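Help!! Second protein's tokens look totally different from the first
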Amino acid sequence: MTNGIEKYYNEETGQHLLIVDSETHYVGSFAQQEAQRRFAIQSEGGRKEKFFFNGMERLDYVIEALTSAQCGYLLVLSSYIDFGGLIVKSENDKVPMSTTDMQRVLKITKTQQSSFYDFLDACLSHGIITDSGDGRFYVTKQFHFRGKTEGDRVVMTMITKLREMYAEVSAHDIGLLYRLIPYIHKDSNMLCANPEENSPKHVRKFNRKQLAEAIGVSPELISRATGRMVYRGKSVFAKVTTATDGTYYMLNPQVFRRSNVDYDVTVRTIFGLD
């Protein structure tokens, strides 16, 4: 018990089951508490850092439907959705984005317009984005959303950091990161085969070959991408090497994260976080 709060676990799996607060008489599951906590993050009293959620369960569908660059476009556009999924001009300007506005934020030139419409057509035909018919476009909630998670398996993308990164790296690179989202470990931000694993010693961390195989690219591409993905002097990836496990990979929690925690001094030092 800590400060009047008792926590109960499944003895076999270590999974959180129940929380009891003797002072407030609150009794509820950890899943309920987590959903409430995540919702509070985006409320007026929560963190000031803006983000949106990526629904991990359905991202494979998007990855199959879109090219890497198109996945990058989708992730960047999702940073402009409101709490109803409408793509708007900005946090302070709730006017719906036109296709011209979308091309502007995606940094698509006139000579690249066909690429934009190929992307939009692919999203519309697969139900990833919907068109209301009156100039409003929505990102489908199963893929990317803001607001209450209701216990869904999600990864947070930090809006400001994503946009800063997009100013320095290509849509294809953002799309490569998109393909990694389903493999982010829930506590450590390591890229692994079992991202829901509770026991640190049983996390099956990806080496370069395994990571490449998981997202369908070459190991050489992983090496190039991890080396060049830098924004404002900060690395998007960390490569961690030990004598027993070899080299494995971690994503910068200032851009993507599963847990809304203040990361410890080791993680902050690795990525040069404030």
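Here's the second one for comparison:
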Amino acid sequence: MSTGKSTQRPPEGRVDWKRTAAVALPAVFAVGALAMVMAQGALAASFAVSGTNFQVSSSKLSSKGLASYVQTDRSVDGKGHPVALLGLGEATLSDICQSAEARTPLGTVVFKLTAGGPAGEVTAGNLVIDGEDLVGDAVFGTAEIGRDASTLDRVDGVRGEPGTFGLQAGNIEVLGVRSHAWSATGGNFRLKGMKLSVSLDGTKCF
């Protein structure tokens, strides 16, 4: 029985592009916005961290800008881990080592990644590290300590909640970097001479 309304469908093998566009465009915009936020480093602490921290070390780290504030990372079990979020604008490392321990039926396994050294410098844009501690000899330019974290502007996308303690600085250089971290993210990571190993009872970074 005809209702008088057109119920034409595109012939088989063809696509109704108007309908497809109406469905796809919101998804495209959402992905684009997500990519933009990720590029700015704003999603650094948005994922659940693992149940163990890991080591990060470098003989020399330099950056055009530093921003930092205190926050809490959470693991899947809901447990909180207080960290100092360290945002670095354009980070350059002479070398880098990252290691973590994992318990397996075979014993304790050490996951280890190294890069840089003779192969060349390691670089990363908007590197963000959620660390428990940081050890090294540092030189800061134009330091601002005690600034409200919501007003930090040295590193794009790195801002905390209003009323939260924060600090930032201009160009920085840190020698003998050692840190225990819960997460690390960055855009355009370039790891020259990268080596990755997984071994039973292997050696950690420090």
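Reply: Different proteins will give different token patterns, so don't panic. The first strand starts at residue 54 and ends at 74.
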